[in-house]
Amino acid sequence: MSTIHETAMTPETGLPYTGPYQDLLGYDIARLADGRPVVRMQVEAQHLNQFAIAHGGVALALLDVAGGLAVHARRPEMAGMATVNMNTAFLEVVQPGLVFGIGRIERLGGTLAYTAMALHAGAPEGALLATAQGVYRIFAAKSR
Fold first, then answer.
1. Is the pTM of this model over 0.85?
2. Domain 4-139, CATH 3.10.129.10 — does that match?
3. CA–CA gap between residue 102 and residue 66 (Å, rounded)
4. What is the DSSP secondary structure assignment for residue 6, as one 8-state letter?
5. Mean pLDDT of the 64-76 span
């Protein structure tokens, strides 16, 4: 298995390309002015449910990616990671438009990372749409 560090990296950010799911959902990854990774996406018609708001799964996915990016930023050498648990609070509906997901590490151990994530409307400090807490299993890079 190749490590995340060896997979495709976004040249302008040094952050990983998270795979075909990134293309399917349509998000991109950037860095905030302070260097933290952020996931951003334009919520469009294909993301909406029958009530013309983003399906909850879209918000969950963006929050999950934000948490994973926070882990990757602290452990770029890892072989991989998996979401173990995620608790989410939906505070506002997600309307069409630009959204930003930001994650931070709450606690980082040898094999588990505990994160807090937030989804904002319009800007990284915009209206708070959803929050989440995540636990990620970290898989160590194989020694060569």
1. yes
2. yes
3. 5
4. G
5. 95
